[in-house]
Amino acid sequence: MTRKSQNTTPVTADVDDSVGEIDHRLTRRALINNFRRGEVSRDTLCDAHPELLRVARNFGRSTRVKCPICVNDQLVTVSYVFGPRLPSHGRFIATRAEVEQFDLRPERFTAYLIEVCRTCSWHHLLKTRVLGGHGKSDKSAIAQ
Predict the structure, then answer these.
(1) Secondary structure tally for the chain: helices H, strands E
(2) Gyration radius of the chain's alpha carbons
(3) Which of 35, 83, 103, 136 has the greatest count of CB atoms below 10 A from its CB?
(4) pLDDT of residue 134
(5) How far apart are CA 48 and CA 51, in angstroms?
(6) DSSP letters of 32-81?
(7) What is residue 12's three-state secondary structure?
(8) How far apart, in whole angstroms, are the C-alpha atoms of residue 41 and residue 23?
(9) What is the pLDDT of residue 39?
(10) For the chain, how long is the longest CA-to-CA vector?
(11) Contact 36/110 with Cβ under 8 angstroms?
(12) Residues paired with 21 in a beta bridge
């Protein structure tokens, strides 16, 4: 990337081609507010896929956050990775070490952290992160 400074000498900036983490909490907050105002029905929000619910019930990581929809259960988080040579439905990731292994691979993968209510089937994407493709590992908040 090149830009001109005030003295018209070209300045070259190093461009970091790594992709950061995308946090979806603002979208989550807006959706919950719309539900509380009656603009979105519970049926629309509580429609988690049966496989996501199965993984959440059996392998979900507990959180201290109560479900914002039913307020009856604590939310759990699950992580999935999608990318080359993985099944079309992705791969469930259980540990931070697994995330770090994907981050070391030369191919690029996309990791998703999803919160799920096992009682009412509320689910929401919390974070998205690109893994791999750069040959080094960073600590990740995807597998909490």
Answers:
(1) 4, 8
(2) 19
(3) 103
(4) 65
(5) 8
(6) HHHHHTTSS-HHHH----HHHHHHHHHHPEEEEEEPTTT-SSEEEEEEEE
(7) strand
(8) 24
(9) 96
(10) 63
(11) no
(12) 129
Residue-wise DSSP of 103-122: HHSSSEEEEEEEEE-TTT--
Tens of pLDDT, residues 3-26: 444 444 443 334 345 567 899 999
Q: Judge whether 114 lies within some domain.
A: yes
- For residue 31, pLDDT beyond 80: yes
Q: Are 105 and 41 in contact (CB under 8 A)?
A: no
The model's pLDDT over 58-75, given as tens digits with 9 standing for 90+, comes to 999 999 999 999 999 999
Tell me the whole-structure pTM to 2 decimals: 0.76
Strands 10-12 and 108-116: unpaired
**Mean pLDDT over the full length of the chain:** 83
Length of the chain: 144
pLDDT value, residue 66: 96
Residue 81: how many CB atoms within 10 A of its CB? Answer: 23
The answer to whether 59 and 78 have CB atoms below 8 angstroms apart is yes
Q: Tens of pLDDT along 89-133?
A: 889 998 888 888 888 889 999 999 999 999 999 999 999 999 988
Is 1 inside any structural domain?
no
Looking at the 3D structure of the chain, how many domains does it have? 1
